[in-house]
């Protein structure tokens, strides 16, 4: 671990104390995991504390750990399904941090909005809501941003069907766009493999 990462790790442990649920180092990066109850306060501290100074939120996204029980790290085997991951940057300290929080309920995942802390979170949180169904408590304009207004479901969830639920088309008789159940029949497509003699110079 570099000296800079060691300094950041020590600062995080000192400033946040028992609010640190996990602090992992991998590939030259630190990942801080906190509980949903502490998420907003920790995010505020990360921005405001003189020893941390994470002024910028660079990215925020949702994750669905639904299939991680199949050979996944032990943290996610029986844990919550939905996670929110943020990437933070301190310009003044010249260091980065990944911040993770898991929603407590799988059926209705809710975490606090960090938009009041970093206003760059606005559209990122709307995207995570749209694609994963994660609700950001305190967000002032939480509505879909990528899918259509009448879209059903959240397409980045692992259990969302590949073909979706509805399809949209223009009806010439009604002279408008209409929605109807998906008419695509799923089928298995196995590519045909043709092997040439002496391919690649092998005999």
Oligomer: single chain
- Low confidence ranges: none
Number of strands: 9
What best-fitting shape do the alpha-carbon axes yield? extended
Mean pLDDT: 89
Q: End-to-end span in angstroms?
A: 49 Å
What is the structure about, briefly put?
This protein has about 200 residues and is α/β, with parallel strands linked by helices.
Structure, described:
- The chain has helices at 3-16, 39-48, 74-77, 121-132, and strands spanning 22-26, 29-34, 56-64, 82-90, 95-102, 110-112, 135-137, 166-171, 176-181.
- The protein is an alpha/beta fold and 203 residues long.
- It has a single domain, classed as NADH:ubiquinone oxidoreductase Nqo5 subunit (Beta Polymerase, domain 2), CATH 3.30.460.
- The chain has a five-stranded mixed sheet.
- The protein is extended.
- The chain starts with a helix and ends in a 22-residue tail after the last strand.
Topology:
Elements: H1 3-16, E1 22-26, E2 29-34, H2 39-48, E3 56-64, H3 74-77, E4 82-90, E5 95-102, E6 110-112, H4 121-132, E7 135-137, E8 166-171, E9 176-181
List keywords for this structure.
203 residues, alpha/beta, Beta Polymerase, domain 2, 4 helices, 9 strands
């Amino acid at each position: 671990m570099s000296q800079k990462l060691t300094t950041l790790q020590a600062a995080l442990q000192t400033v946040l104390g028992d609010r640190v649920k996990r602090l992992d180092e991998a590939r030259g990066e630190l990942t801080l995991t906190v509980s949903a109850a502490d998420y907003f306060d920790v995010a505020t501290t990360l921005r405001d504390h003189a020893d941390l100074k994470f002024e910028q939120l660079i990215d925020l996204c949702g994750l669905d750990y639904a299939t991680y029980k199949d050979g996944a790290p032990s943290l996610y085997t029986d844990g919550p399904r939905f996670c929110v991951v943020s990437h933070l940057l301190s310009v003044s300290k010249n260091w980065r941090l990944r911040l993770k929080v898991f929603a407590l309920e799988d059926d209705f995942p809710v975490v606090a909005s960090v938009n009041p802390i970093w206003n760059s979170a606005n559209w990122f949180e709307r995207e995570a809501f749209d694609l994963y169904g994660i609700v950001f408590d305190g967000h002032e304009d939480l509505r879909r941003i990528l899918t259509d207004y009448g879209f059903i479901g959240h397409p980045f969830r692992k259990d969302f069907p590949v073909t979706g639920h509805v399809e949209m088309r223009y009806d010439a008789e009604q002279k408008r766009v209409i929605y109807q159940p998906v008419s695509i029949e799923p089928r298995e497509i196995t590519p045909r493999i043709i092997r040439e003699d002496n391919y690649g110079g092998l005999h």
